[in-house]
Design goal:
Blueprint lengths: L6 E2 L7 E10 L9 E11 L4 E6 L7 H9 L10 E6 L4 H6 L23 H16 L2 E6 L5 E3 L2 E5 L4 H14 L3 E5 L8 H7 L3 E6 L8 H17 L15 E4 L6 E3 L4 E5 L6 E2 L4 E6 L9 E4 L4 E7 L3 E2 L4 E8 L1
The structure holds zinc ion.
Amino acid sequence: MKDNPVNSTINFAKDGIQHGFLKVPYSSNKSAWGSVMIPITQLKNGNGPTALLTGANHGDEYEGPIALFNLTSRDNIDDIQGRIIVIPAMNYPAFLSGDRVSPIDKVNLNRIFPGRPDGTVTEIIADYFSRTLVPMADYVLDIHSGGKTLDCLPFAASHVLNDKKQERACELAAKAFGAPYLLKMLELDSGGMYDSQVESMGKIFVTTELGGGGTASPETIEIAKQGVINFLIHAKILTGVIKPFLSPTVSLSMPDERSFICCEHKGLVEPFFELSDVVKEGDLLAKVHNIDRTATIPENYYAKRNGMVIIKHYPSIINIGDNLVVIAKIE
Ligand SMILES: [Zn+2]
C-alpha cells in the first residue's frame, strides 16, 4: 500500500515532552502547498506501555479536547513510565468549524476507518491512525460526547468482542475511567468506526459519551479530566490512585436493538422523560407534534424495554430518521 503522506513534527522514539503537529497535506484555494496542522503532544519517560488519547473524533464534542488540551500543559514526567500520545482534536478541520464531520470533504471520521493514504483529508487522517499511531499503542482512549444533536449521560463504554480476554480487559479499563455510568455498548453502525479498527488490532480500547448539546459543563469536564488520569493509572503509565467520579458506578448494557427509538416523523418533540429516568416497556417517552398545521394528533413514542434513559435527541425539532432516545438495561 502507498505510504501515508502525513508528517509528524515530533519524534515518537524520543524521551521527554514534545509539542508539535501532524501535517496533513491539503492543497486548496486558500493555500496551494498548505497542510492541515493537527496539534499533538507526546510525554515519554523510558520504557513502558503507550497510551493514545484522542478527542474531537467528531468536531462538536468538547469534553475530550478540554481535558486533553489541559493535559498537554503538564511540565513534569517524573510520575510517568512509558509514553502518552495526546491528540486533543483528532478531526481537526471538523473541530475548527464546530461540526460533527469535516467541512473539507463532508466525511465522518468515525465511519471511514481504516481510511486511505490516497483519499480525502479525513481518509488520510484515518489511515495515519490505522497504520502509524494505533500500532504504537497498548491502550487507546477516544473521548466522545453527544455533539450538537444528542445529549448523553456521562458514561465510559466497552464493546462485546469475539476475544473474551480482550473484552474483559477493555471493560476493566472502561470501569477504571470512573465515569458515573459504565456501559457495555451495542453499535448499530459499527462498520468503519475507529473503535472497531482499534479493537481489531487487539488493543485495549475505551470510548465515552460525556454529555452533549454542542457544549460542555464543569461536571462533565471534571469527569473527563479525572477519567484520563484514572485511565493512565490503570494502564500503569502514571503513578497514583484511581478516583472514581461517583461511587458506585451504575452498570448498564444494550442487549439488542430495542434500546434505540428511531423517530419516524418530523416535528416538535414534547418529552416525558429526562436523562437518567428509569422507564418501563410501554411508557410514553415523547409526543411528536406536526408543525405543518395546527390541531393535528401528535405521534406517541413508547419505550420498547425496561431501563434507563441514557441518550436523547437534543434539539426540540426532530426529523424522520433521527435517534429520539436510547434506553439501556440496568445491570
Ligand atoms: Zn462522537
